[in-house]
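Summary of Year 1 activities. Much of the first year was spent building the evaluation harness for sequence design. The harness presents a backbone, in tokenized form, and records the residue chosen at every position. We chose the following record to illustrate the format because it has been used consistently in internal testing since the harness was completed.
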């Protein structure tokens, strides 16, 4: 019987949290913001998620840059220059991820949510592309089938 009460209490708590999150999500503070930055909750969750992704998967930049350089300049360039470029991008992504995790709750200068319309304070990314794997940067079709540039 005690187990049933715990489940009921957990269900009530999760329902309350869900209602609170949907209420926060519906507080549209700036409708002119780009997709993913509509309100405070989406800004901080996107920034925290990006920080966790960059910190956890920053090392993926090494094979990505190797593949990109190989496709553009050949195998030897990909093996040497691509590896070094990947290590640099990896370090940059790791540092940017840590900064995003530590400061997810506040905007930073020079990181506008919409980089096309000026550089002000915001929750925007340090790097473009914002995420490590996108449909255009997935050379081995790992996350996005049918979009890679290496067969």
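For this record, the design step produced the sequence shown next.
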């Amino acid at each position: 019987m005690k187990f049933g009460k715990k489940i009921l209490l957990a269900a009530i708590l999760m329902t309350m949290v869900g209602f609170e999150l949907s209420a926060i999500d519906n507080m549209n503070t700036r409708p002119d913001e780009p997709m993913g930055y509509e309100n405070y909750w989406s800004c901080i969750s996107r920034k925290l998620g990006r920080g966790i992704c960059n910190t956890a998967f920053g090392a993926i930049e090494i094979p990505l840059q190797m593949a990109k350089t190989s496709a553009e300049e050949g195998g030897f360039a990909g093996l040497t220059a691509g590896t070094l470029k990947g290590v640099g991008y990896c370090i940059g992504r790791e540092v940017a991820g840590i900064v995003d995790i530590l400061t997810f709750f506040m905007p930073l200068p020079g990181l506008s949510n919409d980089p096309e319309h000026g550089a002000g304070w915001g929750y925007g990314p340090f790097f473009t592309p914002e995420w490590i794997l996108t449909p255009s940067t997935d050379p081995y079709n790992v996350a996005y089938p049918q979009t890679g540039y290496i067969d």
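The helical segments are 2-25, 40-57, 61-73, 75-102. Quantitative recovery figures across the full test set are reported in Table 2.
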